[in-house]
Amino acid sequence: MSGLFIATLRRTVGRLMPALLLLPLPGMAEPVPEYELKAAFVYNFALFTEWPSDTAYEGGTLNICVNPGSALRHALAGLNEKAVKGRRVSVRHLAALDTLRACHVLFVDGNDRERWVQIKKGLGGASVLTVSDDDEIGHDGSIIALGVDNKRVVFDVDTRAARQARLVLSSKLLRLARTVQ
Amino acid sequence: MSAAHYSRPQRLGRWMELANLVTAGAALLLASVLLILFQFFALRGGLLEDVKVQARLIGENSSAALLFSDSRASNETLAVLEGSPSIEAAGVFTAERTLLASYRRDGVSLVATPSPALVDDGHQFGFNQLEVARRVEMDGREIGVVVIRASLEQLYARLVGYAGLTLAIAMGSLAFAYLLVARMRRLVKSAEAHLDYLAHVDPVTGLPNRHAFNEYLAIALGKVDELGGCAGLLLLDLDNFKIVNDTLGHHSGDSLLKLVARRLAECLRGGDVICRIGGDEFAIILERSEVPNAAGVAEKVLNVLAAPFDVDGHEIYATASAGISIYPDDAPDLETLTRNADTAMYQAKGKGKNAFEQFHPELDHRVQKRLSLETKLRKALDRGELLLYYQPQVNLRDGRLVGLEALLRWQHPELGMISPVEFIPVAEDSGLIVPIGRWVLRTACKQAAAWRESGLGAIPVSVNLSARQTRDPNLVHDIIGALREFDIPPSQLELEITETVLMDNVHANVDLLNRLQTEGIRLSIDDFGTGYSSMAYLKRFPIDQVKIDRTFVRDIPGDGDDEAITTAIIAMAHSLGLSVVAEGVETEEQLSFLRNAGCDIMQGYYFAEPRPAEQVAAFLRSRAGLLSTAPLR
After folding, report:
1. Are residues B228 and B142 in the same domain?
2. Do B434 and B523 fall into the same domain?
């Protein structure tokens, strides 16, 4: 299957978009459509990912970590209280790297360029689904790399990195990826 | 039998056949309709299952596309449906029922947004389409709906094909079954016809048998009852068939029967029915027009049979005796008719064979009389109604008494004296002659003993043996027993056997006579000259005496032939060392002729008639005186 994923960005109908993505975000003032869409993508990735059975869930939550300085943090915070395979989603700010291993999904973007090497080291094959929204990081070890292509949000999948992290990504997801490495 | 006889059942059979066919056709049609209905529901169910599976597959494969709003991927997924010919359109709707992706074949409309009812029910059948809706869920949450619309056209096309096939098979089976049944019916019919043939036809002659005869006769009589007129029955019995069978074998017997049947068929008219109703018995049912000339027909038949038959190279004369009985003149029913014809036939046989007799009431009367005579005769022995008369036999030269012939008489309390001519044949036919003969022998011996006791001396007694008696294996034993019981020397007993009886079974009789002679009993041939015996046989039989038949004596002197025969018999017997007795001597002329011819002994009214024992005793006591006044001197 081709990995090209194209989602329409309906900037003009901003109110409709959350509905289209099944991601109602109540109480959000002036949401940036692109951020909302990317946050929804992150959530959907989690839906199509299988963590190893020995994965620990502290407090029973599926933790999505994000740099407190990330532009997407507000959008991601909207995922709180949603559920993935029966586990409540908890969005955490990852200020220091000591809590890195408690993450199940790690969202990184341009803010994390400097500490990316450290993060990679810290992860060291831990079962964390890394999703990058940065061209530089995107091609350097993150499992899923988001991007914009022809005004559409697209993503690429690095299956080698996923294998290292012992994560299984659903073929349904892979079918939608722009590229699968 | 005739075509008309069967026409109605045949027509009925045809109707039955048609009714059977229609019934079977209706049953098959009903079965076919049920099968087609069943097939319709099965096909529809199959289609539903099929489409549901497709919807489920599409739903599974559309979940990611729904979540990521990827119309293109979703469209690709739907494109797979091209492989299912019955699916004409499909669509993937989001949870808000906006169309994400769709698929449709050329020339058909898009699927409509599914109604909540359709989504809840899962499917909905229309007249020519099926709509299936299936929710797509992710983590227990509805994320969209897949709707597939399938056309029922292909289902209908397959159903029509199936219906055609079913009906064709039904018609084919019906035709096959019909042919099979028709063939079976034909076989059964021919088997029945064959059985009927076997049951009604005599295998030897190919003529109808007794069974068929009864049916034909019943039909003929029924026709007479219905239309009036009359019918005749001619029974025919071959006179010497038994001899042919015994001497030439059964194969020749069968050949003779075949030839007889052929001649009968040739000489009779087409309308007459000829049947073989027994071993050598044939029956001819005469048509109305021939009844007045029944005697002529009988004569014609006898004439036809009179010519010799060539049976396996032998020339056989198969004369017949015929009896005729007419319905309803002679008999009121079938049984009586047959019995009367039979009576007439036996009457003809009694008349000397190769003859016919037409039944007349007197015949029946005679038979009845004979029957009642037989009944009376059975009782006669026990009731002591039988008695013996004795007739003296006298030496022609010196007039001395040489013996007494015991003669059976029947004194019936009501009917008076019954002639032996009347009752002896009855006794012969019924077998009563055996116990009667035994009684005669014993009584004669007892009487001889009584005379001896009364001082009359040892008087020789002669007793007649019948044909039936000669075949009785106990005969010799009984004779010896009687002789011993009354202490009579065997030489004092003489047995008379008629020439006819003797010639009937020469071998057995030679043995019997030899045994009797060994015992010392004298033997005499009775009625000599009537039985066509060859002189050669006379030499073989151990006999002492020949008795000239009374028919020759009756006409002498005067009849040249009889004179010549009598003389010849006497000369011949003397040359063989046999003495000669002449019976039935009534006149002096006869006496002197016989004396001149050299006859040894005479017996007859001229000298003394048969008398009861007491009178004979008195006669014997006075015989010296009688002899002195006898005309012999």
Report:
1. no
2. yes
Contact at CB, A172 and B98, closer than 8 angstroms: no
Q: Which residue of A has its CA nearest to B60?
A: A172
- Give pLDDT, residue B13: 73
CA distance B86 to chain A (A): 27
Q: Does residue B433 have a pLDDT over 80?
A: yes
Tokens standing for residue B583 = 């019976």
B410 CB neighbour count, 10 Å cutoff: 23
Q: Are B357 and B348 in contact (CB under 8 A)?
A: yes
Amino acid at B153: E
B450 vs B457: CA distance, rounded Å: 10
Residue linked to tokens 């360029």? A113
Domain-embedded: residue B379: no
CATH 3.40.50 fits A16-180, yes or no: yes
Hey, are the CB atoms on A173 and B64 less than 8 Å from each other?
A: yes
**Same-domain check for residues B337 and B435:** no
**CB distance A47–B70 less than 8 Å?**
no
CA distances from B91 to B61, B77, B79, B294 (A): 13, 10, 11, 108
d(CA B134, CA B111): 13
Please name the residues between 4 and 43 in chain A that touch chain B, using a CB distance below 8 Å: 5-8, 19-22, 41
Indicate if B391 and B352 belong to the same structural domain: no
Q: 80-139 in A: which are within 8 Å (CB) of B?
A: 83-86
Sign of the CA dihedral with B152 first, then B158, B162, and B165 last: positive
Chain A residues whose beta carbon lies within 8 Å of the beta carbon of residue B65: 176
Are B390 and B610 spatial neighbours (Cβ–Cβ below 8 Å)?
yes
Contacts B64 to A, Cβ<8 Å: 44, 48, 170, 172-173, 175-176
Is residue B181 domain-resident? no
Of all residues in chain B, what percent carry a pLDDT higher than 90?
A: 16
Residues B575 and B444 in one domain: yes
Return all residues near B623 (Cβ < 8 A) that are at least 6 apart. B401
Q: How confident is the model at residue A32 (pLDDT cuts 50, 70, 90)?
A: low
Please state the domain extents for chain A.
Answer: 16-180
Hey, are the CB atoms on A6 and B143 less than 8 Å from each other? Answer: no
Provide the residue range defining the domain that includes B415. 384-627
pTM > 0.80: yes or no: no
Contact state of B139 with A83 under an 8 Å Cβ cutoff: yes
> Nearest CA of chain B to the CA of A44: how many Å?
7
Q: How many domains does chain B have?
A: 3
In-domain check, residue B364: no
> What is the per-residue pLDDT for B33?
92
How far apart CA B274 and CA B271 sit, in angstroms, is: 10
User: Furthest-apart CA pair in chain B: how many Å?
Assistant: 173
Distance from CA of B84 to the nearest CA of A (A): 22
CA separation for the pair B349, B342 (Å, rounded) = 10
**B63 to chain A: which residues are within 8 Å by CB?**
172
Of A115, A43, A32, nearest in space to A76 by CA: A43
Contact B95 A22 (CB under 8 A): yes
Q: By the CB < 8 Å criterion, does A46 face chain B?
A: no
Whether the ω angle into residue B490 lies within 30 degrees of 0, i.e. cis, is no
A173 and B CB contact within 8 Å: yes
ipTM: 0.73
